[in-house]
Amino acid sequence: NGNAGFQQVLERLESDPVCQRLSLKSFLILPFQRITRLKLLLQNILKRTSPESEEEVQATQAYDALEKLIKDCNENVQRMKSTEELIYLSQKIEFECKIFPLISQSRRLVKCGELTALDFNNLSPKWKVTTRPIYLHLFNDCLLLSRPKE
Fold first, then answer.
1. Where's the DH domain (predicted)?
2. What is the pLDDT averaged over residues 99-111?
3. What is the mean pLDDT of residues 67-84?
């Protein structure tokens, strides 16, 4: 988004008839789609091979290898999404001191959301309750509470 020249070239390429008006994202997702189609193809091959034949053994080995590849791909996609979330969050959150590195290889965001903090003022004769929004960010290794800038 920050590189105007890249955006222009990308728009020109995506509008080219050779690309069939498909976006860059659709080209990036094609290998994953092919892998899942291969899995379906191997499942059909396994259904049609005779039990305990050499073809079944080879198809089973190929299927197991493909399952492992799909699992690895999904894990890597999840890891990249988690890293992207951490980068986005680190750009939004300002720490008073930079002693807490938010982005880490092992850290991932588990849950986040807005909560309402209740402040009781018991200095006055009447109980006065004020509310303010705070945000909870639960990571796999720590809990971070933040509040919006005033």
1. 1-76
2. 83
3. 90
103 part of a folded domain? no
Does 41 score more than 90 pLDDT? yes
Residue type for 21, please? Answer: R
CATH of the domain at 20: 1.20.900.10
Residue type, 30: L
Mean pLDDT of 125-140: 81
Name the pTM for this structure: 0.63
**Same-domain pairing of 73 and 114:** no
Q: How far is CA 148 from the centre of its chain?
A: 24
Q: Do residue 15 and residue 81 come from a single domain?
A: yes
Cβ neighbourhood burial of 97 (10 Å; 0-12, 13-18, 19+): exposed
Do 86 and 114 fall into the same domain? no
Question: Token digits for 148?
Answer: 């919006």
The string of DSSP codes covering 31-98 is HHHHHHHHHHHHHHHHHHSPTTSHHHHHHHHHHHHHHHHHHHHHHHHHHHHHHHHHHHHHHH---SST
| Confidence grade of residue 48 (pLDDT, cut at 50, 70, 90) | very high
Task: Quote the number of domains for the chain.
Answer: 2
